[in-house]
Design goal:
It is elongated, with a radius of gyration of 22 Å. The protein has helices at about 30-40, 60, 75-85, 105-115, 135-145, 165-175, 175-185, 200-205, 290-305; strands spanning about 1-5, 20, 50-55, 90-95, 120-125, 150-155, 155-160, 160, 190-195, 210-215, 225-230, 235-245, 255-260, 270-280. With about 300 residues, it is an alpha/beta fold. It is built from nine helices and 14 strands. The chain starts with a strand and ends in a 5-residue tail after the last helix. The strands form three sheets. Strands 1-4-3-2-5-6 form a six-stranded parallel beta sheet, sandwiched between helices. Strands 9-14-11-12-13-10 form a six-stranded antiparallel beta sheet. It has two domains: about 1-160, Rossmann fold; about 185-305, Elongation Factor Tu (Ef-tu), domain 3 (Beta Barrel), CATH 2.40.30.
């Protein structure tokens, strides 16, 4: 997939493109339906498949006092869009100046003149431009005037749930990872660089851990113990993850500590990915390291049983 960070990097309109536009936070099943429609439309004419998105998320600029907790990093989003089969991704910087772009200018200048859209694929609730004035009727009118076709993809439902980024965030914060997986079509994933911890996991408790920092802007699952798949250098390992404050030791900072099964490498400073499979229990305060170790042993036994039924 070719990535364009500025409109100036697009020397001429794409070849008979089908295009979709959105934030695509999480690249959930609803977004995947948009990408499939783009590929379906462009395929018979050998046209280019194009997606246009923004970085940062527009609400970080429009609502800085209450920005959304993002489901995926920009890096992860790009990977997922590429896996969906899109060949060209335009990732524009969303700035305070860009906020003032009118719906007409956005469609006429960017979508039509620069990209050369022939088919525009959007979700049922899509709107663009300053004040979200570019709604579905507006886009239909612009399509008739400029000569492109508008395709509106209806909402996607799974297990009685509307697939949306809002619902994904809701179930992540509730720790309901089965529902999250149903909405995403994959496991929810946390990424990060392994940090130096307090080195209590191995010497004190008997279970060494890989520690990730959780920042205030991160979408954090409900505190507790989770069964996880740990991906390091393209290899997948089982593990148990504790998200919380480690009350047994009176910690104050929220953290994510993962004990990786059958793993003895030194990975401080290494990137890892955690697929959250299932939440096992709440975080608890124990009388001391020995009682904590007994409960971790039980968690590991349960996690191994659950992971034996899962594919990496």
């Amino acid at each position: 997939m070719k990535i364009y960070r500025r409109l100036e990097e697009i020397p001429k309109p794409f070849h008979r493109p089908a295009l979709t536009v959105g934030n695509f936070d999480g690249v959930h099943l609803g977004h995947q339906a948009l990408f499939r429609k783009v590929i379906e439309l462009a395929g018979p004419r050998d046209g280019d498949t194009v997606a246009l998105t923004f970085d940062p998320h527009p609400l970080k600029i429009l609502r800085p006092q209450d920005p959304p907790k993002l489901i995926s990093t920009t890096e992860h989003k790009i990977e997922l869009i590429a896996e969906a089969g899109i060949k060209h991704l335009i990732c524009l910087s969303f700035t305070k100046e860009f906020v003032n772009t009118s719906a007409y200018d956005f469609v006429n200048r960017i979508l039509y003149q620069v990209i050369g859209v022939e088919d525009l694929v959007v979700g049922y609730d899509y709107a663009c431009g300053k004040g979200r004035q570019g709604d579905i009727p507006f886009l239909q009118d612009m399509g008739a005037r400029l000569g492109f076709k508008l395709h509106v993809v209806p909402p996607v439902s799974v297990e009685g749930m509307i697939v949306s980024s809002t619902n994904v965030r809701r179930y992540v914060t509730l720790g309901e990872m089965r529902k999250v997986r149903a909405l995403l079509g994959r496991y929810y994933q946390i990424r990060g660089i392994v940090q130096e911890g307090r080195r209590r996991g191995g010497p004190v408790v008997g279970f060494p851990t890989a520690n990730l920092r959780i920042e205030e802007e991160d979408l954090c699952p409900k505190t507790g113990v989770y069964v996880v798949q740990v991906i390091h250098r393209d290899k997948c390992y089982g593990g148990v993850l504790n998200i919380g404050y480690n009350p047994t030791f009176g910690d104050q900072r929220l953290g994510a500590e993962t004990h990786i099964f059958d793993f003895k490498q030194d990975i401080y400073g290494h990137p890892i990915k955690l697929n959250l499979i299932q939440r096992l229990r709440d975080e608890k305060k124990f009388s001391g390291p020995k009682e904590l170790a007994r409960h971790i042993s039980r968690d590991i036994e349960t996690a191994r049983s659950i992971l034996s039924e899962k594919r990496p």
